[in-house]
Design a protein that fits this description.
The structure holds 2 protein chains of 2 kinds.
Chain A: E1 7-11, H1 22-31, H2 36-48, H3 50-59, H4 61-69, H5 77-95, H6 98-109, E2 112-121, H7 122-131, E3 136-140, E4 142-145, E5 148-153, H8 160-174, E6 182-185, H9 191-196, E7 199-203, H10 207-216, E8 220-221
Parallel strand pairs in A: 1-2, 1-6, 2-3, 6-7, 7-8
Antiparallel strand pairs in A: 4-5
Helix pairs in contact in A: 1-2, 1-5, 3-4, 5-7
Chain B: H1 4-14, E1 17-19, E2 27-31, E3 34-38, E4 45-47, H2 59-68, H3 76-79, E5 85-91, H4 105-119, E6 124-130, H5 139-146, H6 148-154, E7 159-161, E8 170-172, E9 183-185, H7 186-189, E10 193-200, H8 208-214, H9 218-221, H10 227-231, H11 243-258, E11 261-268, H12 289-303, H13 307-315, E12 323-329, H14 331-346, E13 347-351, E14 354-360, H15 375-386, E15 390-391, E16 396-405, H16 418-427, H17 434-447, H18 449-457, H19 465-472, H20 474-479, E17 482-486, H21 492-496, E18 500-502, H22 505-516, E19 522-525, E20 532-536
Parallel strand pairs in B: 4-19, 5-6, 5-10, 6-7, 10-11, 13-20, 14-16, 14-19, 15-20, 16-17, 17-18
Antiparallel strand pairs in B: 1-4, 2-3, 8-9, 11-12
Helix pairs in contact in B: 5-6, 8-11, 15-19, 17-19
Classes of the chains: A alpha/beta, B alpha/beta.
Chain lengths: ~220, ~525
C-alpha cells in the first residue's frame, strides 16, 4: 500500500477565513487601553491617519503593515496578551465566515496539516488558531523591549513573497510535499502563496485575484 | 411479387434506414451549437430514430393508475400512515435532455404524490435531488423542476440536493458479495418509505441505479465507475450485457433489503422538437419548402451570434417530450416494463456494421445542462454515449474510423466544471491511459478539499467526475481505430485526446477513406433525437 502523501493546507486569515482585519484588532486594543484618555488618543490618532493607511494598503501591503503596526508602540505585552482572548470572544469569533469550518475540516479529512499563515500579529491570532484547531500558526511578531511594544515587527515582515518562503521552509522542516499542498487566500497581495503550491485556491477573492484565478483556471470559492 | 402486407411491413421495418443516392438532399448534422448541412457520399447509410410513440391520453390518470396498481408492492396509499417519515428522491437535471417543456413530468407526479401523502396525514416529507456526484442544481433549476408551489413550500429545508460528502449525511449498509460499498443518503436510508421519481431517457438509467447510485457517495461509486467495468460493458446501454449494470444491481439488491423503496418510473417518447422546429424530427426527403427556409434561417441566425448567445438560446428551447408510460412499485418488475417500452421507442434494427461512422455531437449532454460542452464532454458524448447506443454489437467495426462533428473549443465552465479544467490541462498531457489516471490521480482529485467544497457548497461536479467522463469513453477507445474531429477549430484539443482533426466533414471522410479504403462503408447515425441500434451481422 502506497504511503499517504504528506501535505499541508495553508490559509491566509483576514478576508479569507474571517471578515475582520488587522485594523479591527488594533481598534479593539486601542479602545481598551486602560484609560479613557489613552483610548481616545489612540483611536483619534488612528482615525486621523485613516486616509494615509488606506492609500498605503492600496500601494504596498508591506509598507501599510509596517506603518500600521507602529500604532502599537507603548502598549504593554501583558495587556496585549491578556486582551487577546477577549478580542477573540468579542470580535473575531463572530467574524469567522460560515464556510471556514467546512473548508478546514475538508482539508483535515484529506490528510492536510492545517496551517494559518497571516500578516496579523501572533498574539491576536492564537485564540483563533486554537478555536479552528489549526496545527500551526505562522504570524508576525511584535518587538517588545522591557515588556513594552516598540511598534516594530520582528523582521522579516510576513507578507507577499515572504509568506511563500515561510511556507516552503515549513514544508521542508516537516517533510511535506509543496506540490501536493493547498493554499487559500483572498488577496492579490498573497499571489506568491498561491503560486508556490500545487493546489492554489482563491477564496472570496478581490477583483485582481479573481481575474488572475480565472486566467490560471484556479478554483474560486466563496465561503461568506 | 410479395403481397402488399409484406411490402408494407418491410417498408415500416426499414423506414428508419435511408441510403444516400445522387438525388438525395443534404443531411442535417449537429455540431455543437450549430447545425451542419452536408452532402454525404452516395451509398452512405443514414439511420434515423423511430417516430415518437403516442403519448398517454391522460397523464394524471396514468400516474394515479400506476401508484394504485403497482408491481410487486402494495398501492402507495396502503403504505402510508400519519406520522411516518417519507423521503421523495428525484432524478436530477441530467434528465431529460434537453429539459422538457413545463410542467416537468416530475412536477406532475409530485403534485399527485404529495396530495396523497397530505391526505394520509404524512407531513414529515423531504424532497432530495438524487445528484450522486453530479453538481448541485441551482435554486432556479430546482424551482423549474417541481413548480413554484412545491418549491416555495419545501425549499430549502425540505427540498435540497443530495450531498455525498456530508460527513454525517451518509449511512453504510452491508457490502455486496463482491465487496462493493453500499452507502446511501442518511435521510433516505432512515425513512420509513422512500419514493423515487425517475425519468427513463436511456436504458442505462432507472431501476437499481436510481437509489443505489443517485443517493450514494464516492466510495460506493468507485465499484462501478472505473475503467475496468466500462471496458467490460458491451454496451453500457444494454443492461443485460453491461458490467456496470451488474454491479449496480448487486448494490441495488442490498438497498432493497435495507430500505423500503417505491419507484415511480416514467418513460418519455423522443419528440424532442415540435412546432416551428418539428422539421428537425423529419427525414430531409420529407422537408417542405418552408422547412428548408426555416432551416436556412436558423443556420444563418446562429452563424451571426457569439457562441455564448447561441448556447443561451438553445438551452431556452425546451423539448416537447410526452409521457408514454408510467409504472410504480418494486424495483425490478417496474424497471423490466419500463425497459421494454423504452426499447420499443428507441431500438431500431440495423443490419451490418460500418467501416466509418459519423456522429454529430450536439450542444448538450447530461453533464453540461445550462453550461459549456467542454472537450472532455465531447469525448464522453462521442466515444461514450453515441458509440454505446447499441445492443448486440457496435455500429462501427472494430478498428474502424469514428468521425465526430464538433468544433472542440477549449472552453470550460469554472463554476460547474472546476475539476475538469485541471484534469484536461494537467493530467491528459501526461497520459490518456485511463488505468494510469485512475490509479495515480483519481483519489487525489476526489479528496481535494477545494473540489469537495465546490461540490458541497458551490455548483461544481465532484472532483472524481472528470475521471468518470474519461472512463465513459473507454470501451469506445478500445474499439475504435481512429477518431477524427471534423470542424475542430484548434489543433491542440483533438491532439490531447489522441484524435486527428479535419477542417470539415468532407475532409474527414476523405481521411477516413484513406485509412479504411475507398470502398469503405459509411453510416451516419441521425441523432438526436436518441436512438438505440440493434446491430446484427
Amino acid at each position: 500500500m502506497a504511503e499517504p502523501v504528506k501535505k499541508a493546507a495553508f490559509y491566509d486569515v483576514d478576508g479569507t477565513l474571517i471578515r475582520t482585519n488587522i485594523v479591527d484588532a488594533y481598534a479593539y486594543y486601542a479602545m481598551n487601553s486602560g484609560s479613557v484618555l489613552e483610548s481616545a488618543k489612540r483611536v483619534g490618532r488612528a482615525m486621523a491617519k485613516g486616509p494615509l493607511f488606506w492609500a498605503l494598503d492600496k500601494y504596498n501591503r508591506k509598507l501599510f503593515n509596517e506603518s500600521f503596526y507602529r500604532e502599537y508602540e507603548g502598549l504593554t505585552e501583558d495587556r496585549l496578551r491578556l486582551l487577546s482572548q477577549d478580542l477573540f470572544d468579542d470580535v473575531l469569533e463572530d467574524a469567522i465566515f460560515p464556510g471556514s469550518y467546512d473548508l478546514i475540516e475538508e482539508a483535515r479529512k484529506s490528510g492536510c496539516r492545517i496551517v494559518l499563515v497571516t500578516g496579523a500579529l501572533d498574539f491576536t491570532m492564537e485564540p483563533l488558531a486554537r478555536h479552528l484547531k489549526a496545527d500551526d500558526l505562522i504570524a508576525n511578531r511584535m518587538q517588545f523591549v522591557g515588556n513594552v511594544a516598540t511598534g516594530r515587527v520582528m523582521p522579516p515582515l510576513l507578507e507577499g513573497a515572504h509568506k511563500a518562503k515561510v511556507m516552503r521552509d515549513y514544508c521542508v522542516k516537516h517533510g511535506l510535499q509543496l506540490d501536493k499542498s493547498h493554499a487559500y487566500t483572498d488577496s492579490m497581495s498573497d499571489y506568491p502563496m498561491l503560486a508556490i503550491v500545487g493546489r492554489p485556491t482563491a477564496v472570496n477573492p478581490d477583483m485582481r485575484l479573481r481575474t488572475t484565478a480565472r486566467s490560471y483556471e484556479w478554483p474560486i470559492l466563496d465561503i461568506r | 411479387m410479395r403481397p402488399l402486407k409484406t411490402l408494407k411491413a418491410v417498408y415500416e421495418e426499414d423506414s428508419h434506414i435511408v441510403i444516400q443516392d445522387k438525388k438525395s438532399p443534404p443531411r442535417v448534422i449537429h455540431s455543437g451549437e450549430d447545425f451542419l448541412l452536408e452532402d454525404l457520399p452516395v451509398g452512405t447509410r443514414i439511420i434515423y430514430p423511430r417516430p415518437p410513440l403516442a403519448p398517454v391520453p391522460n397523464v394524471k390518470a396514468a400516474i394515479r393508475w400506476a401508484i394504485n396498481h403497482p408491481e410487486g408492492m402494495d398501492p402507495l396509499h396502503a403504505m402510508l400512515r400519519p406520522g411516518m417519515k417519507v423521503t421523495i428522491a428525484l432524478d436530477d437535471i441530467s434528465l431529460p435532455l434537453p429539459m422538457m417543456r413545463a410542467p416537468d413530468v416530475r412536477q406532475t407526479v409530485l403534485e399527485i404524490v404529495l396530495q396523497l401523502l397530505a391526505d394520509s396525514g404524512v407531513d414529515d416529507i423531504h424532497l432530495i435531488v438524487a445528484t450522486s456526484l453530479h453538481r448541485r442544481m441551482t435554486p432556479d433549476e430546482m424551482k423549474r423542476m417541481v413548480g413554484s408551489t412545491i418549491f416555495n413550500e419545501y425549499y430549502p429545508d425540505r427540498y435540497y440536493n443530495h450531498d455525498a460528502e456530508d460527513p454525517d449525511g451518509m449511512v453504510e449498509f452491508e457490502r455486496t458479495g463482491h465487496d462493493e460499498v453500499v452507502a446511501i443518503n442518511r435521510r433516505a436510508a432512515e425513512s420509513d418509505l422512500t419514493i423515487y421519481l425517475n425519468i427513463n431517457l436511456v436504458p442505462m438509467d432507472g431501476g437499481h441505479k436510481s437509489v443505489g447510485v443517485g443517493l450514494c457517495n464516492y466510495a460506493s461509486t468507485r465499484a462501478h465507475h472505473n475503467p475496468e467495468t466500462i471496458r467490460a460493458s458491451n454496451s453500457y446501454m444494454d443492461p443485460k450485457a453491461s458490467a456496470l449494470n451488474t454491479s449496480v444491481e448487486r448494490i441495488g439488491r442490498v438497498v432493497d433489503k435495507n430500505m423500503k423503496v417505491f419507484h415511480i418510473e416514467t418513460v418519455l417518447n423522443n419528440r424532442m422538437f415540435d412546432g416551428q422546429m418539428e422539421f428537425l424530427q423529419k427525414k430531409e426527403e420529407d422537408y417542405t419548402e418552408f422547412d428548408r427556409l426555416k432551416l436556412q434561417s436558423m443556420r444563418y441566425a446562429l452563424s451571426k451570434m457569439p457562441r455564448a448567445a447561441k448556447r443561451e438560446l438553445l438551452f431556452k428551447v425546451p423539448a416537447a417530450y410526452e409521457l408514454i408510460g408510467v409504472w410504480a412499485g418494486s424495483t425490478e418488475p417496474v424497471h423490466e416494463k419500463v425497459l421494454d417500452l423504452s426499447f420499443k421507442q428507441y431500438a431500431v434494427p440495423v443490419k451490418g456494421q460500418a467501416d466509418i461512422v459519423i456522429y454529430g455531437v450536439p450542444f448538450v449532454c447530461p453533464y453540461n445542462v445550462n453550461s459549456i460542452m467542454n472537450p472532455l464532454l465531447v469525448q464522453c458524448t462521442g466515444l461514450g454515449y453515441l458509440h454505446n447506443f447499441y445492443r448486440g454489437m457496435p455500429l462501427l467495426k472494430k478498428g474502424g474510423v469514428m468521425i465526430l462533428c464538433h468544433p472542440c473549443y477549449d472552453e470550460f465552465d469554472p463554476e460547474f466544471h472546476a475539476p475538469y479544467i485541471e484534469f484536461f490541462h494537467r493530467l491528459l498531457p501526461e497520459t490518456t491511459d485511463a488505468m494510469k489516471l485512475a490509479h495515480k490521480y483519481e483519489r487525489d482529485f476526489a479528496e481535494n478539499p477545494s473540489y469537495v467544497h465546490l461540490y458541497r457548497k458551490g455548483h461544481s461536479y465532484h472532483g472524481a467526475h472528470p475521471f468518470y467522463m474519461w472512463y465513459w469513453g473507454e470501451n469506445g477507445r478500445q474499439h475504435v481505430g481512429k477518431v477524427i474531429a471534423a470542424g475542430a477549430e484548434n489543433t491542440h484539443v483533438p491532439a490531447m485526446m489522441g484524435w486527428d482533426r479535419a477542417d470539415n466533414l468532407s475532409e474527414a471522410i476523405d481521411m477516413a477513406r484513406g485509412i479504411m479504403g475507398r470502398n469503405a462503408s459509411i453510416s451516419y447515425m441521425h441523432a438526436p433525437p436518441i436512438l438505440m441500434m440493434d446491430v446484427t451481422s
